[in-house]
What does this fold into?
Amino acid sequence: MTETVVVVGAGPAGLTAAMELVRRSDRRVIVLEADSQVGGISKTVVYRGNRMDLGGHRFFSKSDWVMRWWQQILPVAVHLDQAFDISYQQQTRTLIPEALAAEDASEVMLVRPRLSRIFYKRKFFDYPLKLNAMTIRNLGLGSLTASAMSYAKARIAPRWPEKTVEDFFINRFGERLYRTFFKDYTEKVWGVSCSEISAEWGAQRVKGLSITKALLHALSASVRRQSDVEQKSVETSLIERFLYPRLGPGQMWEKVARLATQSGAEIRLQTKVIGLQRSGERITAVETLDLRSDERHVIACDELISTMPIAQLVEFIGPHEQNVAQVASALPYRDFMTVGLIVRKMKPFAACANGAGMPPDNWIYIQEPDVRLGRLQIFNNWSPDLVADPNTVSLGLEYFCTQGDDLWSTPDQAFQDFAAEELSRLGLIDPSDILDATTVRVPKAYPAYFGSYAQFDSVREYLSQFSNLYPVGRNGMHRYNNQDHSMLAANAAVDSILSGTGDKTAMWKINTESDYHEEHQETSSQHGQRQAA
It folds into this structure.
């Protein structure tokens, strides 16, 4: 009989797993999603024709498998009179418009320039930091000299062992630059001191970036091929161009959901998982609630791929070891709120040629300690098609919070007024230029690396006892993954299911090394292509 694989969650991890299962096997695949749309945190929120990207999603990966996977779903848009090179597997191939025609001209990815800057003391600083005239002028020669001496001290006598993210940043930038450009923003994100956050977060998010690598990157800029979209030799935080779906990140996952459904997968939206059934160390069924009809159902499964928060997963599995339950239930998260703000123009750039005063950044890190705003997105610069009226500027004001705190509990209108006042106080907009606003809340957006996370290995070992259970994705693994890491983990889970080994080693290795080995992923892809053929 045909085996049934239930996938909980229709974000990047869940939909990648579903797509690979229907491509490479004849298993029955059922995807359960509590939301009314797919994409998870990578969905695109539409408000009065304006499209919002929650958190900003660069489509870049050092994995050849992921880069090809994305391009198979949404081809890269190229002007009719233009061709460009994209490099992978130590080869450079020319992509030409005729080879990339899409059925729908909107179903494409754009090649976008990356610019992120730090806003500090009401001035803009390049990120990554650059030793240029603007940095010297904004910091001042005295401050720059003190920063250089602080960095030299950190190189001569680094903090060891490197336990906290404070240690991590100081070892790579020196204490002076850490306190100037990283401390306040990082503590806004997590709501705790950098001395309480595990260095593992820095290792996963910033990886090999340091002052030395930033300087080497700047020196080599003139000789790098600007047509290389993949830029595999570049640290992730230094990438200068990336791919981006024309209608936002959700367009990718909406297309994947459509293709997976056409190939036989069932995707059930507004369906909430309310329990699991088990027999020994196997999950045998998933209990669900239809949020539209209030009906309850039980779905028998042979394999379960879960992206639900680990605390919920452990609770549903029970009974379990007391220590595991305590650690899982206490795993911390940070939640996320975005105010979508439509304005006529932005104040500091009112003289810009486009008339809207729009700076060129994708996003701006707000390092200022006198506001709670964490990051500012400018959606026009992700894709012009995200904005309903090209004569306006569409902004995303990002706040990091915890469910139940003062920010999360503020009513929508009051929160929009608060966010607009902060942006005005920073001198970036005039309140009279505000045209419209909306609020979006995202619970459990960021798995956190403090508190009971120090004992997370006990939870992972417990979950690994269940032979047919595969936790993947950001919340499913309690790991601050990018979407490509979530995709790779999902693909590794599918490899294990189809091989019948139940081995989860490769799945848990994703995003634990500075550069995940391409060889394993290439082998998986080729294996899948052979099965599909």
Q: What stands out?
A: The chain has a mean pLDDT of 85.
